[in-house]
Every structure is written in C-alpha cells, then in structure tokens.
Amino acid sequence: MRLSKTIAQLKRVRSAIPVAAPEGGEDRLTDLTGFGANPGSLRARCYVPPGLEEGAPLVVVLHGCTQSAAAYDRGSGWSHLADRSGFAVLFPEQHRGNNQNLCFNWFEPGDTARGKGEAASIAAMTQRMVKLHGTDPSRIFVTGLSAGGAMASVMLATYPELFAAGAIIAGIPYGCASSVGEAFGCMGGRGHADAAALGDRVRAASQHRGPWPRISVWQGSADHTVAPTNADALIAQWLDVHGLPAKPSRRETVEGYPRSVWTGADGTELVEQHIITGMGHGTPIMPGSGEGRSGEVGPHMLDAAISSTDRIAAFWGIAPAVPALSKLKPAAEPRERKPERKPEARPDMAASGVQNVIEDALKAAGLMR
C-alpha cells in the first residue's frame, strides 16, 4: 500500500476514535461483588434506593463507548428516577483491558453467545441483584446507548427469559456482526438481513420460545455514527420475533417527534419506535430532576426536550406516564423548550479493533513490523 493511501486510511480511522469523556462529578453507584462467574471480566456497579421495597423492579443499564457507569448515570438520570419510582439499577461497566475505548464487545462471538463472555457476566450480576436485594425476577429490564444499546440487543436475544422488556438507544440488531470489519459495516447501516432472517438470529440465540421481551427503540435521525437504518432493522427483527405485521398499530407525535407503536392481540404495546428528528448520536434527555425530567447534558447526552429515561420507564410500566411538555411544571431554572439542534458531538461508537486497523495499515505500508 502506498504511503499516501495509508495516511488517508489512518485519517478515516482516527476520525472515528472517540474523545474520552472527562470524569468528575457525582458518583451515586456502589460496587456489586461476589456475583459468581465473570467470564467477561466486567465490573458491576449498582444503585439501590434507601428502603427499597421487596419485589421492586430492576433495571440493567449499559453505558456507551468512552463512558463509565457513573458518567452514564449522571447523564441519563436513572438512579434519580429510581429514587422517585422505587426500583434498583445495575450498571455493568467495561474496562480498558477488555476494550481500549470502553465499548462493550457486542460484535465478538465469544462475548455475545449465551453462557459466554460479557453476556454471561451481565446475566450473572443481574441474577445476583435479584437474590441480594429481593427484586422481582419477573420485572427485570435492560437498556443501553450505542455499544451499550448493541449489548442490550445481545442480552435480550441470549437471555430473553431474564428480561421483561428492553430499550435500545442508537443500537444495532442482534447478530449483525461477528468481526470488527462487520461491526463498522453494521454501524454504517450495511449488511442487514431481511426481517425473517433477523428474527431467526434471535430465536437461534437461546432455547426460549416465548413470551418475548417488549422492545423500545430510540434513534436520532441525524446520527452519523450509528446509521438510522439500524433502528428500522431492530424494529423488523423484533416484529418478526413477536409475529407482528410491519404496519404499526398507530402512529403519533410525542413532543414533536414521531412515535410508532405495535400492539398485541390484547392491546398491549409490545414494540415502540421513537425517532428524534435532527438529533445526532446520543441519548435524548430533558435535563433536570422531577416529573418528566432526568439527567444532565454531557458527551452524547443530548438535550432534546424529551426524556428517554422517563418515557422508557413509563413504557415498561415502572414509572408514571409522562405528561405533555405543556403540562409539566416549570423547571427550577427556566430554559428554552424547543429541541436543541446542536452540532453533532465526536463519534462515541468505535469498535475495539480501531488500534488493530491502524496497525494493519502501518504494517501494509512497511512502517511497522
């Protein structure tokens, strides 16, 4: 490979390398230890509100690349909502020994199969939380952003009996990639199968045959890191698993953003999709604390004047329904209520093989052995 081509490739790769989010600020989480086998070598952190009642729900939250569990909690506000609504939160956390960019390895076969790697570690710590804190095993939920969203897809497919529902934010369908190269293709919206094949991947991931978890999908329409077509592929995958038609049961507008809903025969909302128009790569939040508000703005925590945290919890049935924006009480500090259309932040979703790609380019150019 000519040096000029190598330099061009390196520039493209470096443009996808995330800038680490600065640490600091409140850390409300504590360590969960002694949860048994940990083949994925993950850290477990958690938040349990004081005086949590027996049989409360449990939410598993998976951070994105470059983020820590504490940083994602601050940005999303899950632990504060746990205080208000009465549930426990588990935050599996990645470390640089597993992935230099702190991404969950959602594309590695050894981490995405039932009983293996990171998926098995997350399942083990989830089961430990149930035993240790007496949470309701029938009300366990999982959500995540970006690489965490893709890992949430993994957990919903490989351990569907463990989760009542899930929410995937800027994530990837299960089974899309089994290598770094395929991971970048999936992120770019390439390589998606048809709905039946997508559904088959979920059905093949375990021996479970239903009932299946309810699914919430969130996606920014201006996301250039994880292409919005991934949200459509996720919907197609889970509609096929649930045996639902492609046409939604209803379409509506929520705080100016389109929402589609698919219901079961009894009218239960089984699948929903929120498209946050004009938003880049990140979790949509409405900063603050209180009714309909959660989290704070930070890297990939984007003020879109809609709280995905509160609305996901409401969809799951573990928090009150969120009133229309016009009916919410004023925030402590008045601010503009229109969704922000900020320039997109640096990409937050680089696969762990970025360094390998760089080294391969250098070796091909004869610049490195």
Shape: globular
Uncertain residue segments: 1-22, 333-369
Number of helices: 10
Overall SS class = alpha/beta
Query: Any idea what the CATH superfamily of the largest domain is called?
Result: Alpha/Beta hydrolase fold, catalytic domain
| Span between termini | 14 Å
Largest sheet: 10 strands, mixed
Helix content: 25-40%
Listing every helix as H and every strand as E from the N terminus to the C terminus, the arrangement reads HEEEHHEHEHEHHEHEEEEEEHH
**Binned strand content:** 15-25%
- The CATH class of the largest domain turns out to be Alpha Beta
Looking at the structure, the CATH topology of the largest domain is Rossmann fold
Just name the CATH architecture of the largest domain.
3-Layer(aba) Sandwich
The gyration radius over C-alpha positions equals 20 Å
Count of beta strands: 13
Write structural notes for this entry.
The model is unreliable at 1-22 and 333-369 (pLDDT under 50). The protein is α/β, with parallel strands linked by helices and 369 residues long. The protein is globular. Strand 9 and strand 10 (269-276) form a beta hairpin. 30% of the residues lie in helices and 19% in strands. It has helices at residues 3-15, 69-76, 78-85, 117-133, 147-158, 180-187, 195-203, 229-242, 308-316, 354-364; strands at residues 30-31, 43-47, 58-62, 88-93, 140-145, 165-169, 214-220, 250-254, 257-263, 269-276, 283-290, 293-294, 301-303. The protein has 2 domains: 1-17 and 350-369; 21-346, Alpha/Beta hydrolase fold, catalytic domain (Rossmann fold, 3-Layer(aba) Sandwich), CATH 3.40.50.1820. Helix 1 packs antiparallel against helix 10 (354-364) and helix 7 crosses helix 8 (229-242). The chain contains 10 helices and 13 strands.
